[in-house]
Amino acid sequence: MFEVELVLPLKKKKKHAEMGFYFSTETWTLLVAFITLAVVYVCWPFATFKKMGVPGPTPIPFLGTMLAYKKGFTVFDENCFKKYGKTWGIFDGRQPVLCITDPAMIKTVLIKECYSLFTNRRNFRLNGELYDAVSIAEDDQWRRIRSVLSPSFTSGRLKEMFSIMKHHSANLLGSMKKKADKDEPLEMKEFFGPYSMDVVTSTAFSVDIDSLNNPSDPFVTNIKKMLKFDLFNPVFLIIGLSDHEILSQAMIFLFAGYETSSSSLSFLAYNLAMNPHIMKRLQEEVDSTFPNKGPVEYQALMEMEYLDGVINESLRLYPIAPRLERVAKATVEINGLVIPKDMVVMVPTWTLHRDPDLWPEPEENCIGMRFALVMMRLALVEILQRYSFSVCKETEIPLEMDIQGLLMPKRPIQLKLEARS
User: Fold this and answer.
1) pTM score
2) Which of 50, 217, 355, 365 has the most neighbouring CB atoms within 10 Å?
3) Is residue 112 part of a domain?
């Protein structure tokens, strides 16, 4: 009796196990249909560029061509440009992305049809509370916010902010002098980062955190204080925006102003150190514009032509945004190429700026560019009045770029400052 009871459960378990491995015909049919539909759904967009007659790397299911990003956007874009020419197609997952480097097409997308067909950037829906920032808002909301913000960056407004910038450029010079006097290499971002942060927070938030002289104070401990900005400050006296929209623009100015300006200044210092003959000619313009290390004045600073050319050339070589994107709001034909609705159109600026067939580089436009350029000009001129940048044993030559979104070196740029005789 005991043996019978033991054998029966074993037979039952074996029968259940066999049932687990064998499905009915209907179940198999549904499973195959599901897998087929999934594959069709994932791979359906992959025929987009073949229909358009646009070449490009072969995508794989689910990932598209994103595996090639492991070496960074700039390397991937350069390789595609060399292999496929001025126009090619890639896939971010299922999303087709049309890459263009033809100046005429770029001008149509970024300028001529910007307000009609290519107003919006790609939205990954991961913006959190910054959903209404000027760099993320779409269509009519973007137009309204930009039109309200634009007067904050006129020459008159920038001139009003100039004395605030000079206060922080003096702090920058004093901080750099301490290192220069000891003949120690300077990590450029350690100085230009706090300088940019101090200028942005002072002009936009009316708060002087003085991060140059207090580097040990983390930004996080000041975030609440910085958000308590004065709505009647000249920059934020912007009628027509909600409180949330004002807050979003403030945070975008803060983050964008800090990273872009500090990185641009770091690359600029590196380029001058690597090209001392260019730096010498620039210093001659500085000395003739402001003799005897005289105080820097706004109007004369803005009229320095060689300085303008040096900054533009550095931005060409090291564009902080290695890619620009827009999304087509409707199907449109540009230079004989039909671009379907919802297509992401991408301009690989890093690759574009290194195309030997193009000169000068295509026009780019940023609402805060004038503000950033004044801040950069001022810092550079006041440094070059007294010092020269030079490479040292700690300087990495050539620079290796990081693979993250914004363009920045993988390791900090380190240079020395040599006092001018």
Assistant:
1) 0.83
2) 355
3) no
